[in-house]
Amino acid sequence: MTGRRGALIILEGVDRAGKTTQCTKLVQALRARGRAAEMMRFPDRTTKIGQMISLYLEKKINLEDHTVHLLFSANRWELAPLIKKKLEQGVSLVVDRYAFSGVAFTSAKPGFGLEWCKNPDVGLPKPDLVLFLQLSPAEAARRGKFGDERYERTDFQKTVLQRFEQLMKDPSVNWQVIDAARSIDELHQEILRHSEAAIEQAANQPVAELWN
């Protein structure tokens, strides 16, 4: 035990914005600076729930939309105890997608409101920092492998981006919008700067609950 808790740092954005690359680089940089850091990603496709989600995203099975949303939330909840444990041990977690993606993607479908989509995730560990990698859906579509998975359609991604913009109006969450159209290294340096500040600020604070 370090006596100083780790920070929960989330990277969000439309598909192909570079989140996974930046998560990996951030963890490596934090470790190089002597900080305990680990990467997580959602959905976590290694669990039973995650395996079902993976089949759905790869278009191998079809599921009803409410069911899909609740499965994504359940996938986060099954790892919530581990998240809290790691943070309390002083490990900073860098997470590729979180509840915000779940809300943005489901509420982009017809018939779903933001509040209904948020409810299943109320009480999850609250992030200390949410870095939104801002990239136009048109630019994202030009990047490699776009279209491989279910939601990688430009028209749908535009609606997802609008939902993210609504979520970013919430002052209770520490959002930082980052221009993801720049070089990987430029992007990394800004992400690292924001993350180091969040880690210092989180060190002596208890883990809060999201949207509570």
From TrEMBL:
Signal peptide: none annotated. GO terms for molecular function: ATP binding; dTMP kinase activity; nucleoside diphosphate kinase activity. Belongs to the thymidylate kinase family. Catalyzes the phosphorylation of thymidine monophosphate (dTMP) to thymidine diphosphate (dTDP), the immediate precursor for the DNA building block dTTP, with ATP as the preferred phosphoryl donor in the presence of Mg(2+). Keywords: ATP-binding, Kinase, Nucleotide biosynthesis, Nucleotide-binding, Transferase. It catalyses: dTMP + ATP = dTDP + ADP. Pathway: Pyrimidine metabolism; dTTP biosynthesis. It is an enzyme of class 2 (transferase). Gene3D superfamilies: P-loop containing nucleotide triphosphate hydrolases. InterPro entries: P-loop_NTPase, Thymidylate_kin-like_dom, Thymidylate_kin_CS, Thymidylate_kinase. It holds the Pfam family Thymidylate_kin. It comes from Scleropages formosus. It comes from the Eukaryota. Residues 11-191 form the Thymidylate kinase-like domain. NCBIfam families: DTMP_kinase (TIGR00041). Its EC number is 2.7.4.9. One of its GO terms (biological process) is dTTP biosynthetic process. HAMAP family: Thymidylate_kinase. PROSITE patterns: THYMIDYLATE_KINASE. This is Thymidylate kinase. GO terms for cellular component: cytosol; mitochondrion; nucleus.
